[in-house]
């Protein structure tokens, strides 16, 4: 009994000693200077000598290294100025910073030279590597890292987040890289106030959700922002994607929120959605792009576009090829080279309360599109027509299409039928409302004296009566 009692006392004393000892442990600051007047001359040597929670303070200088970070550390430049603290890859085929630990901070460096020319083996300026070496391994994500105030130049990929979540990238500048920032299967991270300039590709995401992109400037790149396959439930607010090949390019991604972004002066499209569903585009500006302001293509259905501006493009807003069940509410599409709002082979869309003025061809144009609702829009001062429901009689019906490509069947009649057009204001266009050889529900629209309505075939006497009322109303005024 006495021996058992002695063992218990010994264990208790040991536990108390460990608690007291651990409570007195403080994080160290390790100094690095390439001139030899510090703890270490290389960052890697400092990392090797460190323990979790330490800070590695790097004095100005030029460091040629590939650094493996496998501990929870803050690695920061003493000056906070990337111009005077450069880290260049000693081996261009390897990452400058390869991070496999959580809660790592990297701040204040000019990070360059990880520019492998091998197509399938890119190198990275900063690599947050959450991919396990042996699969399957649980809880391998790299989390809680802060990448801030760095300059990333001349790397294959500036910053690569792979299987890495809950990280922050802020106030970095990425230029001259093949890809500036790449997220793969990475979630819940925040990218804010970064400058992504003059790269082949800007910000790319391949899988990942619940990431937030705020106040980033992505300019003069090949494509500013790309979301590809399974990149769902992400949010973009107040970003600028201008002067790129494409602005914001989204393919097979859903439940995205794009609010108050600017996508101007891109060579092709401002905002492009391909096969993407249930996204919200609110208050964005997509002006002066070479092709389309906002383009929904190829089965992009169930999206909401509200209060966006798409002016001075080739086309303002285009819905194409089975982009059905979308809502376009209170958007502005003015002064475009061809059409303000253009629907081609789509159905069941709601076009309500939009403004499509001063376009060089038509304000609102439907081609081979059915069962759409067009109400309470304003389409004034367009060179040709305010609203045109086109016969689109330029496709041939043949046996091959009918038997082998059933997805075309609902458009075989090649006309825009069964649309509802009501309550629209159509003043001072070449012609106000044109519905060529089409059966539509044309309600009361407000057309001034210049308005001409051509309807060789209308399927309802009621429609003619309602149009007559509209014309009489306008002429009395």
Notes on the protein architecture:
With 477 residues, this protein is mainly β. It contains 4 helices and 45 strands. It has a 17-stranded parallel β-sheet. The protein has a 16-stranded parallel β-sheet with strand order 4-7-10-14-18-21-24-27-29-31-33-35-37-39-42-45. Helix 2 links the parallel strand 1 and strand 2 (55-58). The chain is elongated and about 85 Å long. The termini are far apart. Mean pLDDT is 86; it is low at 1-5, 9-24, 392-413 and 449-477.
Distance between the termini: 110 Å
Q: Kindly state the percentage of residues in helix.
A: 10-25%
Q: Over all CA atoms, what is the radius of gyration?
A: 30 Å
Largest sheet: 17 strands, parallel
- Average pLDDT across residues? 86
How large is the share of residues in beta strands? Answer: 35-45%
Instruction: Enumerate how many helices there are, as a single number.
Output: 4
Question: Residue ranges: pLDDT <50 for 5 or more in a row?
Answer: 1-5, 9-24, 392-413, 449-477
Please tally the β strands and state the result.
Answer: 45
- Helix-strand makeup class: mainly beta
Per the principal axes of the C-alpha atoms, what is the gross shape?
elongated
């Amino acid at each position: 009994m006495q021996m058992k009692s002695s063992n218990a006392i010994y264990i208790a004393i040991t536990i108390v000693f460990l608690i007291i000892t651990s409570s007195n442990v403080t994080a160290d600051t390790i100094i690095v200077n390439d001139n030899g007047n510090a703890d270490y001359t290389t960052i890697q040597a400092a990392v090797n000598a460190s323990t979790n929670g330490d800070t590695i303070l790097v004095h100005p200088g030029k460091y040629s290294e590939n650094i493996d970070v496998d501990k929870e550390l803050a690695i920061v430049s003493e000056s906070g100025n990337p111009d005077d603290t450069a880290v260049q890859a000693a081996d261009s085929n390897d990452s400058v910073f390869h991070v496999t630990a959580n809660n790592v901070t990297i701040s204040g460096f000019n990070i360059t030279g990880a520019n492998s020319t091998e197509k399938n083996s890119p190198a990275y300026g900063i690599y947050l590597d959450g991919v396990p070496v042996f699969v399957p391994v649980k809880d391998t994500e790299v989390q809680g890292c802060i990448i801030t105030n760095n300059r990333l130049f001349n790397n294959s990929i500036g910053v690569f987040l792979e299987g890495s979540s809950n990280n922050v990238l802020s106030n970095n500048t990425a230029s001259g890289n093949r890809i500036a920032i790449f997220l793969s299967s990475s979630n819940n991270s925040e990218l804010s106030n970064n400058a992504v300039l003059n790269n082949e590709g800007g910000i790319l995401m391949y899988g990942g959700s619940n990431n937030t992109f705020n106040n980033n400037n992505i300019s003069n790149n090949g494509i500013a922002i790309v979301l590809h396959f399974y990149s769902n439930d992400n949010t973009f607010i107040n970003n600028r994607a201008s002067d790129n090949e494409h602005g914001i390019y989204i393919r097979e991604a859903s439940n995205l929120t794009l609010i108050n972004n600017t996508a101007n002066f891109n060579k092709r499209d401002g905002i492009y959605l391909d096969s993407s569903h249930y996204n919200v585009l609110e208050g964005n500006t997509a002006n002066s792009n070479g092709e389309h302001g906002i383009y929904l293509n190829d089965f992009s259905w169930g999206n909401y576009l509200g209060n966006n501006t798409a002016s001075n493009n080739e086309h303002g807003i285009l819905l194409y090829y089975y982009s059905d069940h979308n809502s376009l509410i209170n958007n502005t599409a003015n002064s475009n080279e061809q059409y303000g709002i253009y629907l081609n082979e789509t159905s069941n869309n709601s076009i309500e309360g939009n403004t499509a003025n001063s376009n060089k061809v038509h304000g609102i144009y439907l081609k081979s599109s059915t069962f759409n609702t067009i109400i309470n829009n304003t389409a004034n001062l367009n060179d040709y027509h305010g609203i045109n429901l086109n016969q689109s009689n330029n496709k041939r019906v043949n046996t091959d299409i009918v038997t082998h490509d059933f997805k075309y069947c609902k458009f075989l009649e090649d006309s825009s039928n069964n649309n509802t057009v009501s309550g629209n204001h159509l003043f001072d266009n070449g012609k106000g409302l044109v519905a060529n050889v089409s059966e539509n529900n044309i309600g009361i629209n407000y057309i001034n004296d210049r308005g001409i309505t051509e309807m060789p075939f209308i399927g309802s006497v009621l429609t003619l009566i309602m149009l007559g009322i509209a014309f009489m109303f306008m002429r009395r005024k």
